[in-house]
Structure formats: structure tokens, C-alpha cells
Amino acid sequence: MRNVGIIMRRELASYFATPLAYVFIVIFLLLANYLAFYVGALYERGQADLDSLFGFIPWLYLFLIPALSMKLWAEERNSGSIELLMTQPLTLREAVLGKFLAAWIFTALALALTFPLWLTVNYLGRPDNGAILAAYLGSVLLAGGFLAIGSCMSALTRSQVIAFILAVVACFALVMIGYPGVIDLFRSWAPQALTDALASLSFLTHFDSIRKGVIDVRDLLYFAMLIGLFLLATAIALELRKAD
Amino acid sequence: MIKTEHLTKHYGALTAVEDVSFQVGPGEVLGFLGPNGAGKTTTMRMLAGFVTPTSGKASICGHDVETEPLAAKAALGYLPEGAPSYGEMTVRRFLDFIADLRALEGSRREARLSHVIEHLQLQSVLEQSIQTLSKGFRRRVGLAQAIMHDPPVLILDEPTDGLDPNQKHEVRTLINDMARDKIIVISTHILEEVDAVCTRAIIISQGRIVADDTPAGLAARSRYHNAVSMQLAQPAQLAEARAAVAALPSVAQVETSERDARLTALPRSGVPILPALSELAARTGLKLKELHLESGRLDEVFRTITS
Fold first, then answer.
1. Full set of structural domains in chain B with CATH
2. CB neighbours (10 Å) of residue B292?
3. Most buried in the list B40, B58, B138, B144, measured by CB within 10 Å?
């Protein structure tokens, strides 16, 4: 566990040693605020909640998180630093977890910087702060899911561009299978059980249920398992291909 | 102790390393030689636990690299080929990171950090990011990383590649200083390096060990072993000298070079020819600029064995 912390700190410091961290945060905040105010009509709806923000979070993450996760392993393999890292006395699991946690903490930080929106709705009305908190938690979990997938895709290739595209496609699929329109498409021909199973695999289903303020153990378990599974896949992919 | 037994690595149908077995003990500096693509780097990567062998075993200080990877890695300092590192980090932060991973603490940590910074002369670049450093400095940062925890075993993949002659000399001095109490394996394709630092050399070609000997022993395999080379003061005498030398019964063959008026006499096996040649020069009044006995040419042995 000591090594996880060491890797995580190095990784976080490296985000801030380059413009990457600042560019990511600025773009994330600009888009989040633009979507919440102009597309989500935060004022015009006249409702004291942050649905205008959280409704767009999956779509915002869809492009921004793969942009962050693409470098996790592809860059290490491309520059050869993975050889340096993996010949230090630490396990692959520690390295995978440390890097993932660094990226996760970073996205949580970017998300936390949307707090002026929360202050705004509290100034304008009396929102259900419990539900807002739950939505923030759901967003953090969603970011974790996206990042775990991105980490796995990044481990599959030396090319950051390919890692980005693979991650966008995989995350898009996992978001879309929960979309009502898409579920209906399946419902027209597939058995009910299959439709339900597919829908329950979706990010959106679980994110939306947490967002409503109901924190169900099944939703937490879903994200925990999804993250665990893709991190394990990351480690396996690296074990097989780290030296190629 | 480094030990490998029948170490083999296949990449699909391609054989990178085939049945490589050797042992290296304390005080030995083993030079790993071979043409590019011969399997040097793959062998070193297997020793360092970065590449998993297809079959065979390797151990560092008694720790098998596959079953006890952490113990093996803890006993090992490794410089990967090309000395990769994290370009955006400053040298100081990078060394701190390595010291963290090597679990160095307290006064020992301070002592080791200042030791590597001093010995690899990194003081002037400590606050610079690694990507802005010259190739020589980057290599030294990689070496600093490898010796950070004062490991009993060092594996250095081309430690002097890309360094200028002064830097090469410094790195060789460093290796010689550490050689007494450590086991060191270096790979190189610079043959002068073998003479400069190695006590033993393994030549590997197409994944297999083709020679395992001391540098002197390898040189003795050369046709030039115990050959006598002489440079004439008067180039005009070259043809005449050649005929006289070739007539000596102990001389097997004579090679001449017009460019520097040099004549090299190769002996019949095992026969010393230096006395006969110096006597010949005195007798015929040949004026010599230089006369010396060759111990053998490593580059010629290398070419003969690997091509």
C-alpha cells in the first residue's frame, strides 16, 4: 500500500508539472458551466437544483475523461519508462492502482471546482442539498468507472490517440445501452430479461438512480465491480504486453 | 550471485534468446557482447524481471525472478536500455521518487542521495527537468537511479552509449570503483569497454552464447595473438622487408599497409616471433619507427564469432 501512495503522488505531481492539469480543469469548468447555464437553463427552469449540471456530466466525461486516461499507460510504454517502473520493487497491481487513484482524485478535484454552481442555487433558493451531495458522489463514481475503462484501453496500446478512441467508444457504449431510446430498441425484439440485464450494465441507469438522491448498495456495488474488473484487466493487459 | 539456467525467450516464431546459462559471482564484471538484435537486451530484461522467460530460470542473489520478483528486484540495480525516465520531473524529484520506491529512510536516505548526486555529478542539474537534459546527463540520472540503494547486483544495459569520451571515462571509473564488492553485468558493443572494465565477457549471437571467456582469453583466439607489428621509418623498404620477414620459418603470414608503412607478421601457432624479427631488423639494418607485440584483436574475434 505504501507503494500505491508513492506512485499516486508522483502521478499527481506530474499532472501539475505540465499544462495538462490546468488545461483539463479550465475546459471542464468552462463546459460544465456553459452546459448548466445555457443548455441546461439553470436560471430559466426556476428550480433550485443542479439537474442542469448533472444531466450533462456523462456527456462531458465521455470526451474529457478518455483525454485524461489515455496517457496513463500508453505514455509509459511509448517512452519506455514502464521498464524503469516495473523493475523497481513494486507489484503491477500497486502501480495500476496508484495511477488510477491519482487520475480519480484529479477528476474529483475538477468536479469539486463546480462548487460556485452549488453556492448559486443555494443563494437563489432552497435546494435539496442531500440530493446534490448524492449527485456529486454519483459523478465521482461515474468518473471512476470511465477512468478504469480508460486505464484498460491505455494499457492495450502505445498510441495515446488509439487509447483515446477506444475509451470513448467503450464508454459511449456503456452510457448508451441505458438510454431510454436504446433500451426501447432492444425491447422490441429481445426478451425482457436480456433488456433488463443490458440496461443494468449501463452507467446511466446507476448514475441516474444515485443522482435522484437514493444511494442503493447495488449501485455502489456496480461501480465498485466495474472499476475492479477494468483495473484487473489493465494489470493483465500490462502483464502480457508491457515489453512489446 | 546471478544465475541463469537454460533461459529462453520466444516471441511467436521468433527466437530472441535460446538456452542461455551462466553464473556471475561477486567481484566479477561481466561484459555482455553481441551484434544488435542478438538478444542482449532481452536477456537483461529477463534478469530484471521485465520480460517473462518462455522457459528456463534466472535468479538474483538466490531469489528467482519469477517466483520472488520483489526480493530479486530489491537486490538489483538496473539501467534499462536508453535510460528511460520521467521527462517532466526534475532530477531532484525523480531521485526522491526512486528513494521512496527503494524504501530508503532517514539518514541512510540522505547519505545515499548525496552519494549518487556527488558521484554522478548531478549537482548542477538538480532543479532541471529531465527532458531538458543532454543525453550524457540523462544517462547519468539513469545510473544514479540504478545505484541508489547500493544494490549487490548491477545490470546496466549500454551504460556508456551516447556519452562523450570524458563521460565514458567517468562511467568506467565509477564501474571499476564499484566492481570490488558487487556483481556487475554491462552490455555494450564498444569493444574497448571490455578491456577497460570487464573481467569476463560473454558473446551472444542469434540468442545463443557463442563465447564465454576473459578478455585476454578472447583476444588469444585472434589470429593476431602474439603477432608482431612494425612500422618502418622508410616506406620504400616495405616490399623488401616483407620478403625478408616472410622468409622466416616461424612466420605464417605477413600483412602490409602502404598507408602507414606498417608490416604485421602473424606467427605459426604457439611460436614466439618477436626475437626472430628484432634480430632480423638488426641484421638487415631496417629502420623501425615502432615495434610491438599484439595481444590479439577483439574486434576481429568478435566478427569471426558472430558472423
1. 2-219 (3.40.50.300), 228-296 (3.30.70.100)
2. 11
3. B40
